[in-house]
Write a structure and sequence with these properties.
CATH class of the largest domain: Alpha Beta
Helix content: 25-40%
Distance between the termini: 48 Å
Largest sheet: 8 strands, mixed
Number of helices: 8
Number of domains: 2
Radius of gyration: 22 Å
Structural class: alpha/beta
Number of strands: 12
Oligomer: single chain
Amino acid sequence: MELYQLRYFYYAAQYENLSEASRQLMVAQSSISKAIAGLETELHTKLFTRSGKKITLNSNGMLLRSRVAPILSAVDALPSCFQNSEGLPTIRLRVLCASALIPDILARFRDIAPEVRFQLLQSDSREDVDLTILASPNELVGYGATLLTREEILLAVPSSSPLSLYREVRLEQLEQEPMIMLSGDRLLRDQVEHMFRAMGRKLNVSFESDNPFLVRMLVQHGLGITLWPSRTWSAYSTENLAFLSLVEPQAYRNVYMVTRHPDRELSPALVQFMNYLRRYFKTVLT
């Protein structure tokens, strides 16, 4: 029996929905199903009643959930029992979107809380963090997710492109256009691919990069077009670029901050930073 199996079970038990548990944990749904199956085999009992894709916690599952909750709470609280070598509070922050804004966010936060240290991660791994900033085209429902902003996804084209003469463009007009995609933002990529599939169109990807700065440079040099989140990419230079609204369909995404473990008692430094993020996206990023 592994700790991750208990965590995956606990999230599935909390939401009684594997898709939602997958979104909250940021792991594949198949991994959660496999972990639960392993637990059921080891414990020689079923933990859920299954009806098609729907799962409902049964009495054995309720018992296990009650036993698992304090275990996970104790494990999740361990980092807060220790401080870094300087005795200063530390926040482990995973940034899966809005990375261009992070230097400004942290510089401003440093002015009000100079004692707080940060460990920054950008990989979507299982490594434990205190807070994740991520984006989703869908609404994230559940304890631990807080909406920071809703932003329009614009089309960025070179100023020299004939498309720059338009204020808006239909998705069907872009099928033959070379697309430059940010490979490091899987959620944005999935959203774009879904939009094209829904319209019966093919996404024509010419370049991919995990660096937003390089994506911008490729577009500026006339090598293709890209999708441009209107608010969280506002820190990047827009020289020699034109921005068009997408219609039929329109494209938006939600930016959230997510506490990885809803039952963990949040440190004072993390609460202060989360409150600051709310203010930043409400008042600074306008």
